[in-house]
Amino acid sequence: MDHIAAMEELVVSDRVRQKLQDVNAAAQKYLSPVQDHVNFTHPCINLAYFKCAYACFDRRRNQQEVGNCVENCSVPVVSAQQRVENEMAKFQERLSRALMVSQDKFDAAKLQQVKSSALTDLESCVHQTTENGIKTLPLLAERLKSSFSINN
Fold first, then answer.
1. How far are the Cα atoms of 11, 35, 83, 143 from residue 90, in angstroms, in the given order?
2. Which of 5, 63, 93, 129 has its CA 20 to 30 A from that of 19?
3. Rounded distance, CA 8 to CA 63, Å?
4. Confidence band (pLDDT; 50, 70, 90) for 42?
């Protein structure tokens, strides 16, 4: 019986891993256009950065002054990148907390010797958590697009 339980746990573990891969794929789908826009195509931020940085290279400035000038020019670009990273970190933190609740419920059920239903409950909880996370990604992407004035 212990061998069967171990196999069931392995199957559920693979399903959980697949659900997490689904979340990663959805995050890529919804957020990579925003990240690409910030990194490569945002006209205001990138054009302003390159113009500013170009102006820094003045023969009258020493290397330190040029470096400081270029660093100051990069502030809007870095700020935009940090905004995307912060939103993603918040999303990941919420997802992690919800998954920890699922794991805690599973661990408690194992201690109570109801392992077979615990596996089903764990899988169900993880499924619901990841589906809820995936549903929030389009909203997160739209909020970021709006903040960067990205038109679909």
1. 30, 16, 11, 14
2. 5
3. 63
4. low
